[in-house]
Design brief:
By secondary structure, the protein is an all-alpha fold. It has one domain (3-165). It has six helices and no strands. The chain has helices at residues 3-25, 30-55, 63-81, 88-116, 121-140, 145-168. The radius of gyration is 18 Å and the shape is globular.
Length: 177
C-alpha cells in the first residue's frame, strides 16, 4: 500500500471519528447528520468511480462494470438526498440495510481472502460480523432514535479503528523479476 493510500485511510478514519462525535453531541438530530454524511460519501464515491471509468477503466476488461457501479452509487446518493423529509423510520431502515449489506459483503470478501491464503481474512471477517451485529442490535432499538444514533456512532468508531489498523499494517511487496 502506498503512502497516499495510507494517508487517505487515516484521513477517512479521522473524518469518521469527527462525524461520530458530532452525532453523539446531538443525538436528537443525529439521523439528519447521518443522512447528510451518507449522501456526501456516496456522492464522492460515485464521482470518483465515474472519473476512474472515464480516465482508465473504459480501456480495461470489465471496465463497464465500473461505470455501472458509479451510476448506482450516484443514484443512491441522490436517493439519500431525498430522505430528509421522510419519516425517521424509513431512514433508519435504509441505514440498517446498508450496514447489513456491507457486513455481508465484508464476510464474503474475507472468505475469498481465506481461500487465497491472505492473512487479513480474520480482520475482514470480524468487521463484517460486527457490522451485521450492529444492524441487528439497531433493529432491536428501532423505536428509540437516540439509541440508534449511538449505535451508528459505534459503527463509525469501529470502522475508523479498522481503517487505522489497515493503514498502519505492513504490506508485502511483490517483485517480479
Amino acid at each position: 500500500m502506498g503512502k497516499m493510500k495510507r494517508f487517505e485511510l487515516i484521513l477517512k478514519a479521522v473524518l469518521m471519528i469527527l462525524a461520530g462525535i458530532i452525532i453523539v453531541a446531538d443525538p436528537e438530530n443525529g439521523y439528519q447528520i447521518v443522512t447528510a454524511i451518507l449522501c456526501l460519501s456516496l456522492l464522492i464515491y460515485g464521482i470518483r468511480m465515474l472519473i476512474y471509468y472515464l480516465t482508465m477503466a473504459r480501456h480495461m476488461v470489465g471496465g463497464r462494470l465500473i461505470l455501472f457501479v458509479a451510476v448506482i452509487e450516484l443514484d443512491f446518493a441522490l436517493f439519500t438526498m431525498t430522505l430528509s423529509d421522510v419519516p425517521k423510520l424509513y431512514v433508519v431502515l435504509y441505514l440498517l440495510a446498508i450496514n447489513a449489506l456491507s457486513g455481508v459483503i465484508e464476510i464474503l470478501r474475507s472468505l475469498e481472502s481465506r481461500r487465497g491464503g491472505a492473512s487479513t481474512w480474520k480482520l475482514n471477517m470480524t468487521h463484517g460480523i460486527i457490522n451485521i451485529a450492529i444492524a441487528v442490535m439497531s433493529l432491536v432499538f428501532i423505536k428509540n432514535t437516540n439509541m440508534l444514533s449511538y449505535m451508528y456512532c459505534l459503527g463509525l468508531f469501529y470502522s475508523a479503528a479498522i481503517n487505522v489498523i489497515r493503514a498502519l499494517r505492513r504490506t508485502a511487496i511483490v517483485y517480479v523479476a
